[in-house]
């Protein structure tokens, strides 16, 4: 990932739009965001993070308050970032959600968050060429190209304030949370969860199997009627089954005994019941014969009544047919009378004519009505033609009125078209002038800004000259002080040499081994260390002088450039000229904005002219066609009217006359049919009456009333026949019973004792049923216990491998989750994170040793925590000076910064290697440099210089003045509220 350009507007402390050109800043691979505390340095990093992910790092991201408090209501909060990721250059534009005043009314409304992604250098495969505008799609695309989440990005690319010092001193749980976000160990957490879920599932399965065993034991104990023991279950089951088998044998023996007694009792009962039944049959037969003898006279009456009804049935059908024919004749006479009156009502007076005459007259009327059929169709067409004539008259009037309206409209359009063309020419000319005026406006705006900056440049030059004078004086004073100290040292050189003399040793001056009077140091003498310190002070003063002179040179260059661009013009003159140009631009823009409207109106007017012309031609043609058609129809209607008047006669029209004839024909036909039907009914009635008289004579009846008196309904005849047949059958059955050989020798007075035999048999049956039930219960109980014993044995055998498997799974799950036999209390996820942390410690140690000049190294420890808490993520520091390992919390402020920065860079290396290794083209380090001394700062800067190798860009965020002196100023950004300036140096 490489950043190219950043724009922020109404974002954080920046009210006006500010632009940061990262291509220019990163040309040397190292740049500095410098400013006072609160100047908005970190806000630029927040803007980069917001453009990429829609959120900002640290606690600031939780507040979600990104809009500038001093922004104008109509100013939109926006961040624009151009960058290249994996060879794809793109532009990201994001706006956060914020409250703005309503454009109408009072109060505020919510401005919704927006995001867009535009491809600037080709479109990657599978992406829409027009880019993306949905927030979720933009977020997924950016994260997919970067290959990391926003948490990883904030720890790898943006190294925020205090985050790694916090990580350095964090306990195991906090460090684990961060590493999980960076290295994506969710799959290992899923493995831990899988083991836990599998254990729960297997435990549930095992509990279910154990519950099944307990249920089988309970059911066996319930059937056995005994309490199940806690131990020796198999022996208890065998003993219960043996006892039940003995009970089954005993009940079977008792069953055989009571069955034999039951058979004897039932045999005796059957013999007595047969004897009693024969006596009862004899008594019943004699009682029935006695009853039948008393019904002889009644049965004779039934026979006579049934014979008369059977004779009347042969005549009854003929009588019913004669009555039906008489009713039909009466209906025919009534219908004939009604239809005669209807014929007289439609205008025919000869209603007494016979059927032949009526048919002849109806045929004559049909011929006359048929001749009128064609004229009826012409009468209907006559009505349609007259209606069409009226419609054509209206159509002609409408068409002529439309022609007049269209002609009036067309008369005014040419003048309007000419005026629109003239206005469009003026607007086109304004568009041509607008670009030149805008260029001039931009140049004047820059010149006005330069004129406003001229006093500041003069003041900066004055300050730079003063600093140069002060630096020259300081340098001269340092040189004088160094010369003075050198002279003093030379004067005291004898004493310095004498201090090194040793008895018996040669003098470095005279060579003598004796030193009788060595020189003594005088007051104010100077040693080598003091002279070296003076030399260093001279070097520092010389460097400060060079820096001041360089600053003066830059101020002079900037002032000369301003004066060159101004060319002697004052700020008032430039502002007046700028106001004049802005007025011209506003006027020209107003005219140019009318071009689209005028062009559209001109095209509309020309299209309207063509449309109206076409409508006018169509209206004139429609009027001519309608008038021609009307004249043709008028001639045709007049000729047809003469023929229709002759055919209608005295009726309203031909249709009415034809309808009258149709009604008369229908009435004649109806009367004819009625008279024929009446004659037919009279003939049928005479035939049926003759047939009835013949049937009465054959059946022996004198009159119809006599026949009807003897007739009986079918159900009555059936009851009589059934009574007679039932009496005959009963008499025959009773006589057959008396003749049965089994009843020979039996008297109706004989008595048989059945009750005592019944009681004996009942007692034997109860005893047998009890014995059978007990035997069956014992056998059923034995079978059920055998079945339950088998199922219990199967369940017990089946649960043993499950218990062994679960014990193994339970122990393995505890180990994977950092419990049980896991001595270090490390879960699988912690183990993987510990390996990653060990890699980070190795990578960070290389930089920490360089920054601390070989003193400190990181040491990873996987020991368990206090009170048995999980371990594996411990991070200590090895102090080579003392040879001891101590907690990172004991480091000083500057040492903590070095350790935190080394840890951050090491972590960035490891994460980048895991995500592909090609993402760290740009790296930001936020704050912490103020805790370092000059020498350590040099070492840190050397490390950062190494980071920019291979085209990498490193951005530093700090308020330390030493870094400001090291990196020249290229860009200033002014904060909205306080007016403080943020400098971007490279």
Automatic annotation (TrEMBL):
InterPro entries assigned to the protein according to its UniProt record, in alphabetical order: P-loop_NTPase, Rad50/SbcC_AAA
Pfam assignment, any one: SbcC_Walker_B
Keywords annotated in UniProt: Coiled coil
Segments forming a coiled coil: 265-312, 376-437, 538-654
Keyword set includes GTP-binding: no
Signal sequence bounds: none
Gene3D superfamilies on file: P-loop containing nucleotide triphosphate hydrolases
GO process terms (BP): double-strand break repair
Record domain Rad50/SbcC-type AAA: where: 5-186
MF terms (GO), sorted A to Z: ATP hydrolysis activity
Family statement: Belongs to the SMC family. SbcC subfamily.
Subunit structure and binding partners: Heterodimer of SbcC and SbcD.
Name by which UniProt lists this protein: Nuclease SbcCD subunit C
